[in-house]
């Protein structure tokens, strides 16, 4: 939504928008009572909020020639659209680095021939950051997502490969049976340097690791 929320009050100048907005606001308020909150619970209200805000933008632009205030408001509307476009572009670029689990599984497929006998364990962190059934490309490979195993579990030695969070402590506990094959970097934070172009850059850090049996 970005800056678009600022124009919702102007959209309400059209009374028809109130009938659209109230159910959406009520929906958000009801879900806000839940102890566990996620954006996906309320994302269904975004089209309604965008519609009301768009009506507000339309109201300002249609009255462009009436006064200096509307002229300034129209400039703000155009500026907010450009800001939203820039913000969306940054978010899209950053989101590319939010799936080190999925990238790790793709890297495993790239590094090893399809004919290799692979039995890979995927930990919870990797499964939550991009690993899905759609990435299980090789029918003869075995993919396991058991959640009841720890680094010291004897069953870990059965796996030819491990895709797991790049946690130094866990890696150290596995050093007798597995060694790092590849590290996958993911989003850490944003850095701003006005002396560079582009001034905004994404800082990465090791997020997941592929381990191979000794």
From TrEMBL:
It is a multi-pass membrane protein. GO terms for molecular function: dol-P-Man:Man(7)GlcNAc(2)-PP-Dol alpha-1,6-mannosyltransferase activity. It is an enzyme of class 2 (transferase). It is found in: Endoplasmic reticulum membrane. Keywords: Endoplasmic reticulum, Glycosyltransferase, Membrane, Transferase, Transmembrane, Transmembrane helix. Pathway: Protein modification; protein glycosylation. It catalyses: an alpha-D-Man-(1->2)-alpha-D-Man-(1->2)-alpha-D-Man-(1->3)-[alpha-D-Man-(1->2)-alpha-D-Man-(1->3)-alpha-D-Man-(1->6)]-beta-D-Man-(1->4)-beta-D-GlcNAc-(1->4)-alpha-D-GlcNAc-diphospho-di-trans,poly-cis-dolichol + a di-trans,poly-cis-dolichyl beta-D-mannosyl phosphate = an alpha-D-Man-(1->2)-alpha-D-Man-(1->2)-alpha-D-Man-(1->3)-[alpha-D-Man-(1->2)-alpha-D-Man-(1->3)-[alpha-D-Man-(1->6)]-alpha-D-Man-(1->6)]-beta-D-Man-(1->4)-beta-D-GlcNAc-(1->4)-alpha-D-GlcNAc-diphospho-di-trans,poly-cis-dolichol + a di-trans,poly-cis-dolichyl phosphate + H(+). GO terms for biological process: protein N-linked glycosylation. Its main location: endoplasmic reticulum. GO terms for cellular component: endoplasmic reticulum membrane. The chain crosses the membrane at residues 17-34, 41-61. Mannosyltransferase that operates in the biosynthetic pathway of dolichol-linked oligosaccharides, the glycan precursors employed in protein asparagine (N)-glycosylation. The assembly of dolichol-linked oligosaccharides begins on the cytosolic side of the endoplasmic reticulum membrane and finishes in its lumen. The sequential addition of sugars to dolichol pyrophosphate produces dolichol-linked oligosaccharides containing fourteen sugars, including two GlcNAcs, nine mannoses and three glucoses. Belongs to the glycosyltransferase 22 family. This is Mannosyltransferase. It comes from Tetraodon nigroviridis.
């Amino acid at each position: 939504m970005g800056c678009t929320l600022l124009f919702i009050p102007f959209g309400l100048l059209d009374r028809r928008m109130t009938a659209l907005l109230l159910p959406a606001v009520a929906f958000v308020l009801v879900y806000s009572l839940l102890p566990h909150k996620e954006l996906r619970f309320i994302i269904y209200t975004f089209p309604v909020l965008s519609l009301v805000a768009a009506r507000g933008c339309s109201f300002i632009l249609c009255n462009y020639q009436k006064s200096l205030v509307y002229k300034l408001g129209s400039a703000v509307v155009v500026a907010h659209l450009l800001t939203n476009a820039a913000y969306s572009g940054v978010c899209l670029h950053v989101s590319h680095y939010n799936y080190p689990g999925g990238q790790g599984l793709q890297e495993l497929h790239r590094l090893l021939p399809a004919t290799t006998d692979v039995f890979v364990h995927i930990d919870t962190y990797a499964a939550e950051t991009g690993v899905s059934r759609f990435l299980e490309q090789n029918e003869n490979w075995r993919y396991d997502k058991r959640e009841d195993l720890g680094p010291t579990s004897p069953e870990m030695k059965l796996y030819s490969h491990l895709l797991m969070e790049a946690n130094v402590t866990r890696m150290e506990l596995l050093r007798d049976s597995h060694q790092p094959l590849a590290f996958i970097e993911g989003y850490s934070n944003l850095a701003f340097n006005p002396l560079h172009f582009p001034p905004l850059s994404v800082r990465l850090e090791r997020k997941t690791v592929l381990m191979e049996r000794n």
